[in-house]
C-alpha cells in the first residue's frame, strides 16, 4: 500500500464523488471482502461489490487475495494508498490561462501550494528515507510593520539561496507561504 496516490485523472476523481465509495475506501484500509465491508456498512454485498469494482477499475483499490468460502471464491480487496490527493488541475481555474501573478496575491499562493502538492505527491514512496522538513508557526505583525517584515524575510531567504544555491549536492525545493491565520469578520454598522 502506498502512502499517497496523487489523482490526476478526472475519471479517478469522479469515482470518489460518492460519499459511500469514500466509506468503502476507508474500510479497505485493511484487506477485506465485499461481504465484510457490506456488514460494517449495513449494505447488501452486491451493492458494495459494485462500488468496489468501480474503485478497482479506477486504480483506487486492488484485489490482494482470494478466499474460498464453501464453493464460492471471494475476493479480498485493499485500498491502493493511505491518502488520496486530488490535483487542483482537475478543477482548473476559471478565466483562461494562468497569468504571472503578483507574489502578494492569493492566486500566487494557490499556485505555489499546487506546485508543492504535486512535487510531494511525486516523491518516491519506496525510498527508505526521504529527507524532508516542515516548519509551521504563527507570527503577529502590526499593519505598519508588514513591509519591514517582508523585507527582512526576503533578505533572509535570499541569503540562504545565495549560500546554498550551488550546483553540487542534493537539490531541495523551499517554499514559504505567509497568509492570514483567520479572516476577521467585518464589523457591520448598526
From TrEMBL:
Entry-linked Gene3D superfamilies: Winged helix-like DNA-binding domain superfamily/Winged helix DNA-binding domain (1.10.10.10)
Keywords in alphabetical order: DNA-binding, Transcription, Transcription regulation
One Pfam family in the UniProt entry: HTH_20
Domain HTH arsR-type: residue ranges: 15-99
Transmembrane segments: none
InterPro entries per UniProt: ArsR-like_HTH, HTH_ArsR_DNA-bd_dom, HTH_MetalResp_TranReg, WH-like_DNA-bd_sf, WH_DNA-bd_sf
Domain of life assignment: Bacteria
Protein name as it appears in the record: HTH arsR-type domain-containing protein
Organism whose genome encodes this protein: Actinocorallia aurantiaca
Phylogenetic placement of the source organism: Bacteria, Bacillati, Actinomycetota, Actinomycetes, Streptosporangiales
Amino acid at each position: 500500500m502506498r502512502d499517497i496516490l496523487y489523482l490526476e485523472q478526472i475519471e479517478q476523481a469522479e469515482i470518489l464523488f460518492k460519499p459511500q465509495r469514500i466509506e468503502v475506501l476507508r474500510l479497505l484500509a485493511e484487506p477485506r471482502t465485499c461481504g465484510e465491508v457490506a456488514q460494517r456498512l449495513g449494505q447488501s454485498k452486491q451493492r458494495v461489490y459494485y462500488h468496489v469494482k468501480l474503485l478497482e477499475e479506477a486504480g483506487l483499490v486492488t484485489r490482494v487475495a482470494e478466499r474460498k468460502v464453501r464453493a464460492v471464491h471471494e475476493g479480498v480487496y485493499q485500498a491502493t494508498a493511505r491518502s488520496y490527493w486530488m490535483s487542483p488541475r482537475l478543477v482548473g481555474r476559471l478565466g483562461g490561462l494562468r497569468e504571472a501573478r503578483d507574489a502578494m496575491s492569493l492566486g500566487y499562493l494557490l499556485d505555489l501550494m499546487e506546485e508543492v502538492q504535486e512535487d510531494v505527491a511525486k516523491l518516491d514512496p519506496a525510498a527508505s528515507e526521504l529527507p524532508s522538513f516542515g516548519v509551521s508557526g504563527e507570527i503577529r505583525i502590526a499593519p505598519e510593520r508588514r513591509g519591514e517584515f517582508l523585507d527582512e524575510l526576503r533578505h533572509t531567504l535570499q541569503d540562504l539561496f545565495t549560500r546554498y544555491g550551488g550546483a553540487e549536492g542534493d537539490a531541495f525545493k523551499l517554499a514559504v507561504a505567509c497568509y492570514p491565520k483567520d479572516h476577521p469578520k467585518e464589523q457591520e454598522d448598526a
